[in-house]
Amino acid sequence: MFDHEVLRARLEIRDFFLKSLFREVYENIGQMLSLVRFNLAGANPRAEAASELVAQVIRDLRQLCKNFYPDADLLKEGGLKTGLKEIVDIIFPGSQHLVQTRQAADEMQPGLKLIVFNMLLEVLITVAEFKGELAGVKIIILPASFEFSVNYTGAGIQVVQGNKLSLAQRADLINGKLDQSIDNAGTRQIKLLSL
After folding, report:
1. 187 has pLDDT over 80
2. pLDDT in tens, 123-154
3. Contacts by 167-170 with C-beta closer than 8 Å and gap 24+?
4. Kind plus residue range of the DSSP H or E element containing 145
5. How far is residue 125 from each of residues 3, 60, 99, 118, measured CA to CA in Å?
6. Contact, 37 vs 31, CB < 8 A?
7. Within a 10 A sphere around the Cβ of 116, how many other Cβ atoms?
8. Interatomic CA distance for residues 87 and 66, integer angstroms
9. Which DSSP string do the residues of 14-81 spell out, in sequence order?
10. Does the pLDDT of residue 43 top 70, yes or no?
11. Residue 105's pLDDT band (boundaries 50, 70, 90)?
């Protein structure tokens, strides 16, 4: 219980300072940069180029702030698909087009969505650490079930770290099943299915 309380305190402190930074970027820095951009607009070609750079800084800062609370966007409708494409592009740049989605049901329950997303994140990070090459990611969400699969080439991976639950144990926790396979061409697949 002490360790859980330490973790909760750490997260609440971090959350406080992140919210403060988020507000500062959006309210103060964003407004100041918008004013600078407005003053530069139309003065001359050099000022126009500077204005575009300021606009890019504003977009980058807003994207940075959005990443402070990724779980908030993840829990929105369609957030799982969007979040998965974003992490695929971060871990395997230019590969977000390899994510295929099919959804014939409402989004998953929020806690389940966070656990599944974290499991997929862990698999993708481990594939990258083992120098694997991503071949595709598939998401299927149906009314009574879900299926997520990560296809890659490279060495097989075993994801178990420290005192953390293994992927298989977490799959059991969410009433799911974890399967790993390899086809004749050497493409490996890690699949998470609901039971």
Report:
1. yes
2. 999 999 999 999 999 999 887 789 999 999 98
3. 167/119, 167/122, 167/123, 167/192, 170/115, 170/119
4. strand 145-153
5. 26, 24, 15, 10
6. no
7. 22
8. 14
9. HHHHHHHHHHIIIIIIHHHHHHHHHHHTTS-HHHHHHHHHHHHHHHHHHHHHHTTSHHHHHTSTTHHH
10. no
11. low
Predicted model pTM: 0.73
Helix (H, G, I), strand (E, B) or coil at 84: helix
C-alpha count within 13 angstroms, C-beta hemisphere, residue 107: 17
Give dist(CA 139, CA 191) in Å, integer: 10
Write out the two tokens for 172: 């059991």
Averaged pLDDT for residues 83-95 = 90
Core vs surface per residue 160-171: b (16+ CB within 10 A) or e: eeeeeeebbebb
Q: CA-CA distance, 68 to 195, in Å (whole number)?
A: 33
Q: To the nearest whole percent, how much of the chain has pLDDT over 70?
A: 93
Beta pairing, strands 133-142 & 145-153:
antiparallel
Assign 158 to helix, strand or coil: coil
Q: List the structure tokens of 168.
A: 């298989």
Q: Name the CATH topology of 74-194.
A: Heat Shock Protein 90 (3.30.565)
3-class state of residue 121 by DSSP: helix
Rounded Cα–Cα distance for residues 167 and 171 (Å): 6
